[in-house]
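so im writing up the methods section and need the GNAT family N-acetyltransferase record in one place, dumping it here so i stop losing it
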Amino acid sequence: MYPVGEFETARLWLRQPVEADIPSRVEIPRDAEENRMYGGDGTPKTFSPEEVRQRLTALTSQNSEVSRSWVLAAKIWPDGLAVSQPKGRYIGQITIFAIDPDHRNARLRMGIYDRRFWSQGYGREAVRRILQHAFDDLHLHRMALRVAAYNLRAIRSYESCGFVVEGRERESLWMDEHWWDDVIMGVLDSEFQQNGPV
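--- predicted struct ---
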């Protein structure tokens, strides 16, 4: 196993969990759209402090050879005001998983659970920083992900980070009495480098 590391961008810390993340996660307003964007049925979820503690504790014992996860902690609110938590306010998580060192590829997933931070560039900042880590430090060649076809906000964000649509898994999601495709996206290290520095 290797150290997972912590990273910083202009508005985010990508780090391991701290105690203050528990109330921040519990306090995130629940809404149906947030649940749907991550494949749920649209029923807003609530979490108890103990449930959040268990989920975040799992990050501290991850096998970094095959998977690496970070808390996304905002340093500032979208309006530019500083958050009150010294290590940033928990807004979501990002993970590199299915790491294959022989073929130098892996998969990515990210969730920003607090909609107050949607469409503000926080996701793009996080993805670009993790891609830099994946390609420069882990020496991966390719990163892939899948996203529900109805999640246009996420697709645009991933495209802005250099991901391209590589295909679809047709009608793989049942949502709102309708079948939806999963969109398969990928980015190569050379494409990411052409996209400019983080």
